[in-house]
Amino acid sequence: MSNEKEVELVDAFYMMIESLKNNGIKNLYGIPGIPITALVRSWQADGGKWFGFRHETNAAMAAGVSGYLTGVPGVCITTPAPGCLNGLAGAANATTNGWPMILMSGAAGRRNTDLQQGAFEEMDQLWAARQHVKAAFRVNNLRDFPVAIARAYRTAVSGRPGAVYIDLSHEALTGTMPAADAAKLMFSPVDPTPKQPADAAAIKRAADLLKGAKKPLILLGKGAAYAQCDADIKALVEETGIPFLPMSMAKGLLSDNHPQNAGPARSYVLPECDVCLILGARLNWLLGNGSGPTWGNQLKKFIQVDILPNEIDSNVPIAAPVVGDIASVVGQLRAALKGMPKADAAWMGGIAERVQGSKDKLAPTLKAQTAPGMMNYRNSLGAVRDVLAKNPNVVLVNEGANALDNGRMIIDQYLPRKRVDSGTWGIMGIGMGGSIGAAISTGEPVVAIEGDSAFGFSGMEVETMCRYNLPITVIIMNNGGIYKGNEPNAGGYDDPSPTAFVPGARYDMMATAFGGVGVQATTPEELTAALEASLKSRKPTVINAVLDPDSGVESGRISGLNIERKKKA
Questions:
Q1: Structural domains counted in the chain
Q2: Do 311 and 378 share a domain, yes or no?
Q3: Which of 122, 180, 304, 393 has a CA that sits 20 to 30 A from residue 514's CA?
């Protein structure tokens, strides 16, 4: 008989799971498969929550949206090679939008991969990931999991948030080590998101510029919503009396019904303002890159608050750069602007007049009658708006072309972080993953307003919604195609046009097929009833909202980005 004492060993999955728990991670998103199936089973056995998807991109989108809504990185785990590439689409979107998330992918052995010997799903994933994420790490030894995951968490949430990739090498996943040694390696990060107040001179420069402005404007981006300093931002706006213009995902940071909301007068306030304070937004394509017709062809005096110094002057000169985190800077600005006279009455009066004019112009279109058996974007979304006004806690997910443009314009938001949409890239495909991530991370009901084209990118996740019995209602704005459903084939032959889908498609039957609720709505009244019933029941629901095939316009508000073919003279 041996006298040697038996040593308790732990494996890589134990090291990963304990490290994730030490960083406060409770949910994992992804698709099981070689070599991570045993990991997710072990995660569930340990009490963790696993949410399995039908496509890795949608799982990664869910993780990114979860990170945005909570400030805690969503974690997505994929299989190697194609699975990793699919996940990278969501990770890249999270990084572009400034949302914290962590993507982890199993990988083939380093020896085979580096020699390109043709291992199963062989691919240099670290190289592929680096150009699309904030940082990328590889774990080659299971001893390094505690450091790798803590470092990924800190990187994802500090500074400007973003996605971090961790490559799970075959060597790390197949190792073991003594449990006593493993215990010594475990730790939780201390203060991963430290405050970064701005320099006092920068605050004074910004405050002086605002005090001297005749037509000041505060522009709120989704970064301001992410900062979760809602009360301070509201106080800054109300104490100064300065009008505010919310970008789409900042809607609700202050109620859209707030008297200082200049959103419906966007085309007036951007060219007319003389000083613009930018909180949590970038002067990118969504804002005309800070110049040109959007801004009245005048160089404005911008105060830009950003945690990244290299974001300043990215498109136009910034008169008063303020580098720091939004929560700290807003508090500093409030103190520096204390006692500042309220914004000029004539400026505010001109805005109020135009806001009311926009509302008066829009209102009758939301109640307009259309041909029997179909709706248009305005009266269908008018019905949705009225229901959601009574349910302000609902998280709205919105994507598409016309569905997005009209939804952003028509549906009011009343609370912060209750709107998720296509974001900085203006992409399609975030809808179902974003809806699932929002429902899981907030516990609130979710309503997704989807163009029929946008829905197609992630529609199979209806099964995921039903499998987890999530309180998600998907409204598909079905006009039978991309932009319009009745465009003819330009060649004159029988094939459908590039923008056409199957006429009369019954998307609602997808929900029924998976045990959810499917409803077809052809009038605003039917849509209202279906939405009210779904919110009351909290059951996974798909509403097929039948629209006039001719009700859309090409590319919505960004038609200028389309390249038209030049005709021969």
A1: 3
A2: no
A3: 393
Residue partners of 313: CB distance under 8 A and separation at least 6: 321
447-460 pLDDT, tens digit each: 999 999 999 999 99
540-554: pLDDT as tens digits? 999 999 999 988 888
Residues 323 and 386 both lie in one domain: no
Q: What is the pLDDT of residue 254?
A: 98
Task: Kindly compute the dihedral angle of the four CA atoms of residues 39, 44, 48, 54, in this order, to the nearest 10 degrees.
Answer: 70
User: Are 175 and 255 within one domain?
Assistant: no
- Residue 569 pLDDT exceeds 50: no
Who's near 52: CB < 8 A, 6+ residues apart? 30, 31, 32, 40, 59, 464, 467
CATH of residue 261 = 3.40.50.1220
Strand-pairing partners, residue 10, are 177
Judged against a pLDDT cut of 50, whether residue 1 lies above it is answered with no
- The pairing of beta strand 176-178 with beta strand 9-11: antiparallel
How do residues 177-225 score in pLDDT, each as one tens digit?
Answer: 999 999 999 999 999 999 999 999 999 999 999 999 999 999 999 999 9
| Residue 195 counted as domain residue | no
pLDDT of residue 565: 59
User: What is the domain extent for residue 78?
Assistant: 9-185
Neighbouring residues of 150: CB distance < 8 A, sequence distance ≥ 6 = 19, 22, 23, 187, 188, 189
Question: 24 and 161: one domain?
Answer: yes
If asked whether residues 384 and 517 sit together in one domain, one would say: yes
Question: Which pTM value belongs to this model?
Answer: 0.94
Same-domain status, 144 and 20: yes
Q: Which two tokens stand for residue 282?
A: 């970038």
